[in-house]
Specification:
Strand 2 and strand 3 form a beta hairpin. Helices cover about 30% and strands about 10% of the residues. With about 80 residues, the chain is of the alpha+beta class. It has one domain: Alpha-Beta Complex (Uridine Diphospho-n-acetylenolpyruvylglucosamine Reductase, domain 1), CATH 3.90.78. It has a three-stranded antiparallel beta sheet, covered by helices on one side. The protein is built from two helices and three strands; from the N terminus they run βββαα.
């Protein structure tokens, strides 16, 4: 991600990338769920354009509609 232009601490208004962990998108205060998803999409697109790698988000979303946050099918909860 860093070599695609998204360094630790990168910020766009109230949303950004953690200062400690490049793979964590954070709400710096006042961001809407859509702001987070928009940055996620931008990062995924740029990394794919630069490296040909499709990043997949980990399933740790709080306060989002499932369909806007998920880019792959949800895992089964069946035993």
């Amino acid at each position: 991600m860093e070599q695609a232009g998204f360094n630790k601490g990168y910020a766009r208004g109230p949303v950004g990338i953690s200062r400690k962990h490049t793979l964590a998108i954070v709400n710096r205060g006042g961001a809407r769920a859509q702001d987070i998803v928009t940055l996620k999409d931008e990062i995924q697109e740029k990394v794919f354009d630069v490296w040909g790698v499709q990043l997949q988000p980990e399933p740790v979303f709080v306060g989002f509609a499932a369909e806007s946050a998920r880019s792959s099918p949800a895992p089964s909860l069946a035993p």
